[in-house]
Known about the structure:
Layout: H1 8-17, H2 22-40, E1 43-46, H3 48-63, E2 74-78, H4 105-112, E3 116-121, E4 133-134, E5 138-139, H5 155-163, E6 168-173, H6 179-185, E7 188-191, E8 218-223, H7 226-236, E9 264-267, H8 278-293, E10 297-299, H9 308-323, H10 329-340, H11 349-357, H12 361-384, E11 387-391, E12 410-413, E13 416-419, H13 425-431, E14 437-444, E15 450-456, H14 463-476
Amino acid sequence: MDWNFETAENLGAALRAGDVTSVELTEEAITRIERDDKAVNAICVPDFDRARAAARGADRARARGEERPLLGIPVTVKESYDIAGLPTTWGMPPYRDHQPAEDAVQVSRLKAAGAVVLGKTNVPLGLQDVQTFNDIYGTTNNPWDHLRTPGGSSGGSAAALASGFGALSIGSDLAGSLRTPAHFCGVHAHKPTLGLVASRGMVPPDAPALPAEHDLAVVGPMARSARDLTLLLDVMAGPDPLTLGTAYGLTLPPARHERLRDFRVLVLDEHPLIPTGAAVRAGVERVADALVDGGARVERHSPLLPDPAEAGVLYMQLLVSGAVARFPTDAYEQLRSEVAELSVDDRSLQAARLRGMVLSHRDWIEANNLRELHRHGWRRLFTEFDAVVCPVTPTPAFPHDHHPDPLERLIAVDGVECPYFDQLVWAGLPTMPGLPATAVPAGRSPEGLPVGVQIIGPMFEDRTPLRLAELLEPSIGGFLAPC
């Protein structure tokens, strides 16, 4: 039997039943990677010798009667996480030989849960792209079409899952970096509520691994089923033991409902700042139809939804204000000069990004106060709805575009060319207020490319979108391996 495309849940059951060993699963995964990854280039740092040793240890532990959530299950880890003994570069050539001395907190949690780490997955330079390529490890291709991107920045992890290279992976998300690759590759991902999952050790190689809390950014699980997302989130969730973990534990509330017909869902497919392609609209419609067929209450509009245009501009400003904080002084001054030349009437997203790059502390506080008003608006919305379904990006996976200046790139939405980074506004919808969002496959485009949607839930009610994703999976198709 080929175990490589089984869910982690099924692998765990087979391991407990004695139908397979961790050594067998691990060898099968390694064989597949060595055979198929030359074309995909998802696994940039293999760690096969230690994986084999971990698999043998998992089998011995099970023989002793031990039970752990991921005992013996092969997984991968995004390159940006520290793993002792392996390079952490973020794709930046000056740090090609950087090797951290200890594991990231999430790598430690994976290992404590019994997972077998096969290796690291590829990332874009500095994790700052919707694609996955860098000068150290090269380009990762979409398993469905090697001429297209798997997304970024967790593109290597999504491509690995779609290719059968491990049952689970962990990634990160600041601008859709979990959800966009899942959408492009036909797998599942969950962006947790901001602050739910500790991120120490998911840090650039020139920075210390401190337990700092980062604005907008989260780390989270990727998988081939919604139930596997929940399994992995339960391993990952919880405060850092060096900070809040000294005083607080974690108890996530249960999902609001267990039956599809009890859910109240707002479905969106239009954004005021960018068009939505027909293939993505069709994916949203598949989910809406499945909700209606399952008896859920579905609405298409609500006056309670915080203004998505204002939210998109605010998200862009908050996103870039952190990205330029360490820019050299001369580069920062050049940005200030460019902003000074903007027309006061220029309300484009590109103008919002430029203005965000030079926000003063006073301006950032004002933007953050506006974010709090949006959070309050979402709280009100979630008194009337349990979840919001919407696109992750406006298109399926697009062809590789390695233009050295991302600001010069364009994204084509059904023939309409839009600035490359404008596609982030859908991902930013839950990111700006810090809400959880689950990306799920929702069919295929006419060209056969995967199409996904995201299910947004109330803050710290991560089990609600995850449960809705699980209930929808039989109706909307779920994961299919690339042909």
